[in-house]
Amino acid sequence: MVSSTTLTSKVTSGSPYQLDTPQVVKASSALLRHIKSSQEEKEKSATKKTLIGDNDSDDDESTPLTNEAVWLILTTKKHVVDKNRLKPGKISVPHSLNSSPSLSVCVITADPQRSVKDIIADSAFPAELSSRIEKVIGFSKLKARYQSFESRRQLLSEHDVFLADDRIITRLVTTLGKIFYKSSKRPIPIRIAKIEKEDGKRIKKDPKQKKPAKEDRVAAFASPLIVAKEIERTLQSTPVHLAPATTVAVRVGSSKFTADQLSENIAAVVNGMTEKFVAKGWRNIKALHVKGANTTALPIWLANELWVEDADVVEPENLAIEESTKASKKRKSIGEEKQVEGKKSKKSKPAEDDDEEEAASVAARKEKLAKLKAQALEDGETVKVQAPAAGKKKRKSTS
Question: What domain of life does the native source organism fall in (predicted)?
Answer without folding.
Answer: Eukaryota
